[in-house]
Structure formats: structure tokens, C-alpha cells
Amino acid sequence: MTSIEILALITASAASGKNKYFDSLIKLSLQKRISKKKIYEALLQNYLFCGFPSALYYLKRFHHLSKYNPESYKLNLTGLKDKGIKTSKFIYGEKLPKLVSNVKKFSPELAEWLITEGYGKVISRKHLSIKEREACIISVLSVQMFEDQLVSHLYGGIRNGLSVKQISSLISNLTLINCNYQKNFGLKVLDKIVQKKNLIF
């Protein structure tokens, strides 16, 4: 497995509560000398999709397994919205205004937080490329079976350098953490956009 596949499986195992697989994947990542900062960032990002309780639990578990001590941190609020708009454009392209408008209809707060919190504060952070972040997000949304969000991030992954073949492998790998039903779900969603857009494997 490539490092990006291992990162994606680590985040998916956390999202699905597969502790045994999570521990094994962390140990594998350390053996393969995958950057601890990258693993930390991937797990930190999970709070956007899995909530604080899950992120706290798995970051603590990662800390115990890896002995990784993160750098000190102070949040700089300046320019978060501008960063968020710039990063979200990389993922949603020309569909961003429509997405924000649609979310505003049922939650103005989430429409704002989507940009400042999700893309400004978290996904704009260093140490992981957008391609790596999208690989992890695709795996997490597949195990959670959130179709609308998965579709958006499948397109986002393709826009940022993931091939359809790579994405298919990322989703197929979910069988390695005993998420067979979720794998089938993810592949069906991927197939829908491949057929719709005539994408090539």
C-alpha cells in the first residue's frame, strides 16, 4: 500500500470505530516511516466529519501508540475566511457559490462555518496536500455513507490529482478494515459520477 492509502485507511478506521485495525495501521505507518505530522493532521481533520469526541479519542490513541508530541499552537483568526474561500475553490471549483447558497437555505451558520472552520481553519493547514486530504475525506465519507458529501469530494479529489483508478483503490481498501458494505456503497457512488461524466479509469 502507498502512504496515501495508509493515511486514508487510518482515518476511515477511526471514523468507523475499528480500534484493532486503527492500531495495526498506525504501527504499519510507523514501520514505513510515514510522517507522524501527516498522520496527526489526517486525524485532526477527522473532527470535521466525525466530531470532537472521536477526534479526541483517536488523537489520544495515536499519541500513546506513536509517542508523537505536536508543536505548540495558537489560533490566528486573521484571514480564515479568505483562506477558506481559496481552498474550497480548489475542491468545489465553479460549484462553490451554488453549494454555499444551498446550505444557507437550511443553515446560514453552517454555510459560514463551512468556509471559515472547515476550509479556512482546518483544510488549509500545512503538512498534508489537498490531494492527501481529499483521499482521507473520501474514505471517511464512504464508511459514513454520506452520498451528497462523498460526491462533492470525489470531484474534489479528481480536481486535485487523484485518478479514478486511485479513488477506486482507496474505496476498495475498506475491505481491509472489514467495511465491505461501505466499500460497495462508495464504489457505487463513484460509478455514478464516472458514468455521468464519462471519466476514464
Walk me through this protein's architecture:
This protein is mostly helical and 201 residues long. It has two domains: 3-73 and 131-197, AhpD-like (Up-down Bundle), CATH 1.20.1290.10; 80-119. It has helices spanning 3-15, 19-31, 36-45, 47-50, 52-66, 80-92, 96-106, 108-122, 130-144, 147-159, 164-172, 180-197. The model has no long low-confidence stretch (mean pLDDT 94).
Write the layout of secondary structure elements.
Elements: H1 3-15, H2 19-31, H3 36-45, H4 47-50, H5 52-66, H6 80-92, H7 96-106, H8 108-122, H9 130-144, H10 147-159, H11 164-172, H12 180-197
Describe this structure in a few short sentences.
The chain has 201 residues and is mainly alpha-helical. Helices cover 74% and strands 0% of the residues.
Q: Notable features of this structure?
A:
mainly alpha, globular, AhpD-like, 12 helices, 0% strand
Specify the CATH class of the largest domain: Mainly Alpha
Task: Note the run of SSEs as H and E.
Answer: HHHHHHHHHHHH
Q: Which parts are unreliable, with pLDDT below 50 for 5 consecutive residues or more?
A: none
Here the CATH topology of the largest domain equals: AhpD-like
Distance from first to last alpha carbon: 19 Å
Q: Output the structural class.
A: mainly alpha
Give the C-alpha Rg: 16 Å
Give the proportion of residues in helices: over 70%
- The count of DSSP E runs of length 2 or more, i.e. the number of strands, is 0
> If you average the pLDDT, what whole number results?
94
Beta-strand level of the residues, as a percent range? under 5%
* CATH architecture level-2 label of the largest domain: Up-down Bundle
| Main sheet summary | none
What gross morphology would you assign? globular
Number of helices: 12
In CATH terms, the superfamily of the largest domain is AhpD-like
Total tally of structural domains: 2
